[in-house]
Amino acid sequence: MTRVIGIGPDDGELTLRTGVAGRAARTGHALTIGFDDWHGEVTFDDETPVAVSLRVDVESMQVRSGEGGLTPMTAPERLVARTNALKSLKSSKFGEIVFTADTVTAVDGGYRLAGSLTVCGTARPHTVEVTADGTTVSGESTVTQTDFGVKPYSLMMGALKVADDVVVALRATVAQ
Fold this sequence. Notes:
mainly beta, eleven-stranded antiparallel beta sheet, Lipocalin, 1 helix
């Protein structure tokens, strides 16, 4: 019997963590960004997951925190960082980030999800490993921004910039 279970912000948290690069990296903040509007679906054949999809509204991003830097990150600085991130992601043109996995393989303690990630209108093959502990599913995946045509934000002629690799993390409770 095939069934589909949906997950979203009420069931967990989807975050993105950035790093800082460049000669002046120690002056910048590594960001934790959360998304307030996202929806995932897990398709099961009996008790076995066979497909997964996740859609994220880019405009729903919020800068939750900034670590490092010379001074603590202020609320106005979080707003500026959000604006810069939305520009880098071309959110007015590409409002969604989408991951679809049509191959789900059981691995120790979880699953390997193989499919396609679409960012800024560019789709690339992408694989994510998730752990499953009862009804809790969690996973992290590194995404290289330039692979999707995203130019990481920089200032001071590149002396301070967002690192090209970002880490996307999901932790959610999936009702069985």
